[in-house]
User: Fold these one by one.
Assistant:
Number 1:
Amino acid sequence: MTRYLLRRTLVLALSLIAAGLVLFVLLRLLPGDPAAALLGVGADEAQIAAARKQVGSDQPVPVQLLHFLSDLARFDLGRSFVSNQSVLPEILTRLTITLPLTLLSFLLALALALPLGIIAAVRADRWYGAAISGLSQLGLAVPVFWVGILLVWLVAVEWRLLPASGFPISGWADPVAAIRALVLPVVTIAIVMGASLMRYVRSATLDVLGADYLRNARALGETRAGALIRHGIRNGAVPVISVLGIELASTLLGAVVVERVFALPGLGSMLLLGIQQRDYPSVQGVLLVSTLLVLLIGFAADIAQRLIDPRLRDPAGRAR
Amino acid sequence: MHILPKLALAVGASLMSLAAAVPALAQADPSAIIRIGSLYEPQNLDNTAGAGQGINEAFNDNVYEALFRLNDDGSVEPVLAADHTVSEDGLTHTFTLREGVTFHSGDPLTAADVKHSIERVTAEDSKSSRKHSLATITGVEAPDDRTVVVTLSSRSISLPYNLSYVWIVNDAAQDISASEDGTGPYVLDNWKRGSAISLKAFDDYWGEAPKNGGAVFTYFTEAAALDNALLTDALDIVTSIQSPDALAQFEDTDRYTISEGKSTVKEIMAYNDRVAPFDNVKVRKALARAIDKQKLLQAIWGDRGMVLGSFVPPTDPWYEDLTGVDPYDPESAKALLAEAGLGDGFTFTLDTPNYDPHPITAEFIKAELARIGVTVNINIITSNEWYTKIYQAHDFQATLQEHVNHRDIVFYGNPDFYWGYDNPEVTRLIEEAEQAETEAAQTEKLREANRIIAEDAASNWLFLFPQIVIADADVTGYPVNGLNSQFFLRDIQKTN
């Protein structure tokens, strides 16, 4: 396991560097001049040249790349072209919104999807099992921004129960206000994410229900529920965990839509603004940090699967 | 047992609080924090660093003051300049500074600070959009602590106006892109990038104390989220509404006040006047007459905004109603085209920025011009493409754009500007206006230039955006015109 961890960590670091290189090159291939975008109508060539010099976009691309890599080695993500502030502290501040938003949504989605998915599978022949399945189909079909807009209209504007948008300027210093600001976005994501997770849980459970080992367990005298809990969940969990990893990662990246609907100053809105303004360091920084997080999620999912399923750990087993 | 006295106490207390609340109903609360919603987040805190209009909205005259102020009605008045004298030849301006002014850091205001502040804008590597208008400044001297002498290469009647954009910054302040040290009635309290800026009243302000305790500007990228915040009472006021569709939600006049002011935002169809057929004044006039601008404005803004006959909005001193020069008249438009040898019409490409209201405006124009036999190919572009293709490379036939600045008729005096309008008479008038000895003479010259530009149909001026501010009914004293995106806070009052 130790060797495996070391190898995975190395792969993670290399993936991150590769992602950084690709990002760097792709951003420079995009049309548009960040200096001109910075200055707007009324700027003359001399001013644009001065701006290029200041942000370093007058340098040849290989030189810019060298700067980028040497900064990266020192965990410095550079300075924003637009605000001239370091990118990393801003990313960290925004993560204090995006991370809780993503994790809370994920936990809530899981809390909805696990029991409902299992019920939908075990009681597939009853009306409520079918109803749960139908609801999850519906949840899959609606776009996340539409759910958000609907919740805002109902809960915030009509009922006045929760704030419709924004995040307290003092951040988490006032935890109650911060949590209140996150409730609607979290519920929005959880509804959509929970619906898709529920489908996976349901089909994984259906697979397990038809498995030989479960029939054996029943034959050895276990009740259906007991067999499912002792053997089924553990086996069904392995495929579900990789789906969970993917869902968590895509929620992190997809938070941009929800952040926009609810005017939350998270990582997603920073990315969007950075793209609009051709602010390469901001965009690079956000994408690198999100890549790192996604890689870490994949890493954690792998480890979790190995802990649950000994066959994956065994060199003679299926995987390696 | 104990319940009765407690009950009596509670009743007494609530009666007392009721009594205290009654006079408060009608009274303004001088410590109230005004919660403002805006779509224009500043990207840094320095208006000379390409920070966008948001920083002017939050900081002009609130955090930083200038020698002069551009008021909401378009007039200019002295602020930090107590006295201003001009030499006979108009080339030397002497300013005496107001006494008793201190920066937020406690440093007193001196002439050296003013010199530093002006030179920051005119410096070689300055990125200020105002650098051009101050190009005639050849030197700034500070002979003593209270006196600033500005020397010019040629007369500049607009100097006080142009100085209204120059924030007076403490020369000892370090990087002001993330902090501030101004002399205004408010100090920066907190800045959360991507989200909000809060200001609080400055206790040692030299002038009259503001009528509120401070303000929080909250920034939105989505207009709907901004509207929702006002609907759910998370905001007191919204600085400008960009879509009339939102207005219906606020029509309950007991709760909200909708004010319509005069903006300086002009929606125009600019031609490339260098290229055929737009180098022909008859073609330009034909297109001006072929578009029913009143109908276009109605479609986009309902009853709000106004049709313009030229580039000059009513808050510029040289405004004149020139809508009669080329009124809507498709028949005469056809005749003009025939005179220009284009009786069978022609085809051109209209480069259209991809955001509101340009695409819908382009569709309208396309339909209108089809009636006089002119075919429009709409080419949707990003604002970034607009800068490189149109603004920098002049590679276009016609384009839509919103021009936001106040007093920007001077663009028509620059033949190298993107639209390539080149009339030596206009260039001369605009230059002479700047060198006029009196404001009346300046105004007369610019009126004349404006009439020529309108007669030449240099561009197709479609309409002036309305400036719509929505506020809670208990909030008063805010600026309604928002010239140059300024949003003066000091007179805003909130009653409870």
Note: DSSP finds twelve helices and 18 strands in chain B.
Number 2:
Amino acid sequence: MQILKHKTNFDFIGKRKPALFISTLLNLAIIVGIAAVGFNFGVDFAGGTVVELKYDTPTTAEQVRERAQAGGLHDVSVQGVGAAEENSFLLRMGGVTQLTEENAEHAKAAIQGLGETRNVYADMANGIVNFRSVKPMSVEAVKKAVEGAGIGVQEVRDLGANQGGTGYDYQVVASGMADKVFAALSAGLDKPNFEQRRVDYVGPQVGKQLRNRGVMALVYSMVAILIYVAFRFDFKFGPGALLAMLHDVIMVAGYYLVSRREFNLTSIAALLTIVGYSVNDTIVIYDRIREDMAKYKGKPLPEVINIAVNDTLGRTILTSGVTALSLIGLLIFGVGEIFDFAMAMLVGILVGTYSSVYIASPVVIWLDERAHSREGHSGTKHEAKAA
Amino acid sequence: MDRGWWWKFGMIVAVTLGTFWFLVPTYYSLVVLDRSERNNIAVLEQRLPKWAPPARYRLNLGLDLQGGIHMVMRVDTKTALQKRTERRGQQIATYVNDKKLGEVTADTDPERLQLTLTAKDPATMDAIQKEVLATFTDFSLDSRNGGTLVLKPDEGQVNRFRDEAVDQAMLVIRRRIDKWGVAEVDVRKLGTDSIQISLPGRSNPEQAKELVGTTAQLEFRMVDDTNPQVFAQMFQQHPPPADSKITLVDDEGFPQLSSPNREALLAYAKDKTPEGRDVVTQCVANPVKKNDCLSYRSYLLDKNVPLTGESLSGADASVSQMNEPEVNLAFDPAGAREFEKLTEAAVGRRMAIVLDDNVHTAPRINEKIGGGRARITMGRAGARSFEEWLGEAQTLALVLKAGALPAPVTVGEIRQVGATLGDELIKKGSLAALVGLALVVVFMAVYYRKSGLIADVALLLNGLLILAGLAFFNATLTLPGIAGFVLTLGIAVDANVLINERIREELSHGKSARAAVDQGYDRAFWTIFDAHVTTLIAGFILFFTGTGPVRGFATTLIVGLLASLFTSIVVTRVITTYFVHGRNAQSVSV
């Protein structure tokens, strides 16, 4: 069987200018969109708490929301997971501990009511209230006072006397949000009528770290690939591969931007896979261009590239098709993250195939032309360079 | 068929058989064993046939696939450093005042961890500066402004202190989890100040957080040696139930109860403990498996806790002039007074050092110890080597510091997956992978006919190789890992497509079957190589910079690409060569 019966001779390169124009426009639009609207960051990067619950009895998202609100959880988003008869819900909250801005004030007041204190300072990121008391305090009393103000306390830490002899240091560690969810939803029941299937809890500090590391991974791999391509091929091939990669990454980021699907660690993995796939595809075409450059000495580069792209067209379509085929299972049976991953990959495969032809190759031509015109000015013969 | 071909063929057969052999422990742990035993290496080891590879070479399932808790604890090294700087500042001030160089007060800047010394009489500052910088070498001069001197802590010292704080926290966390009795826990350092903990099969994140997140509690308590036979009498008067495994052992004239089960031991001793005393256990470390308790021994301690870790200002391991490892302790002024009083009254008795309800050691007090500095001599007795004793001293110093200098830990991240969700994800994930694989296999066979079938054989071998490779590296298969698996198969197919398209091209140029196959493979080789290497680069960077799911994905990708290079370049070529050269075929079926 064969997809393309005859040797094709499409003029890909001739249409490079409008293609480049549209791609650049799209890319810019996505970058502006990311800057203006931003991703729908998942708990991995934004920090926060996600709880997945499965109810034993038929329940609607509205009922879960009402119950949560009655229990004092106001900024919770409730979303159904899977089919309605599964009775599974995803609850998202911004905070990771019960120490909110408002709560922190209550906690401070409660602590100050116990005796003379100094340096009362709430560390929201870690859910800790630090304070220095003039007199030693009982850990139990502090715990009781803060809990009395309506904040769950995991632990009160006695850090001992301050060395300068100016007081005694304590830390109050607030308990987690998931605790409160569990308490709020099972309030008034003998036994909770749901199962806690998953809890994701990421502190904002860690979230920032995870995000930075993800972006760094992306940058590092691009640079490493650029170096490899520059060595294995020719310098003029490097920037094209890099731009094609960037183009693909931005386009897939665009998928997350437009679809409003959650952007998390798995999304970073998807972007990185796209980098791999994009360069994989570009390399195959570059390889052919290099081979054909040797074969058709004397022909102008745009023509050679066109031949190379046409020669590999069958393989390009086939490979993209087969890789897309292997994603079908994930698209059908994948849940949540995995579905998004597969979808992002699909977008990546399509744009990756496109960019190898319309971004990577034209940049090579452009760099080649620039080199020529410069040498042309310095008086070198034109033909000598075409080879 | 030349000799080279037979060699290659033999290698492929060996690799294939090796792959199946290597997957035996994985097969047993996932299919043969009951789910509750899945993480139990000892059980797996017993059930495995004799010829199978060791049980540790099995494919682990990530917590997202089997249920459990993954958490990242952040060690609040900043608070600890702040405390330390404050303490050092006080020491410097005392030193300067004692030496009569002048009178200074010390202040700590908690943000920048700087120390500011302010002299009462600015004129004395020159002498103070000289003396302080010469004596307290862990600080260097930042700036000087008349009568105020700003010192900054030495970078290396700060880093060492930070590392130590994380090590201490890890030690405490490990011991607590051991007490909880979770099989196959994984506690490891993550970055500079975080600790990653995996608890397979656990489902209560709040409980885990409480267990791991509370500050270590160090106590100095007196051992009740007034009646050394107390446990022996207990044992004789109320023999423990036969199945409790509680035995009586002699430890240098102090009989102790011993049991592999801590709870059983405590329950047995509970109502037999004399008034005003507590039975506290000691972990007897397993010499084979690190961080595991072989058994627990009983100690009878005074209920009263005269001294806690908060009075301790430092602990270090060193080697004495007698060439014996020892641990040096330093107390703060109030602690020093208390310690002196305590040791004076208790010469000849033993003092237990208790961390988190575990007796770490119980040295005998030889004399009254004043001045706030004490020494615990480890001796060199017994069958242990000098290095082992020194290691013991270092651990003890770490334990003491863990209780003394609280570097609080806070929860950075918790991910908990229920067991039923994990099962569901395994089912859906493997179904997705199988459907993807089946579609590709069918397509290749239809599109390339015989060559497609050869590619399919390579593809299946590729899949098995990935699983065996993951088992070999003791990697963990995660949900994104399954996605990576599918993607790698796609890339492997690309290699075969490249080769087959090349062969078709060569055939269309009128080449003979043999020449077309040889040239097709030769020409496609570098393309495949470049394409794989570039993706591998991305995979490695992902592995080294990524965490959690990203890392799981990267591992699968790397193993998959290596397997794909082998199957697409070597395996398919050897098979194709057999049909084309060996059978002397005049045509190729592509």
Note: The first helix of chain A runs from residue 16 to 36.
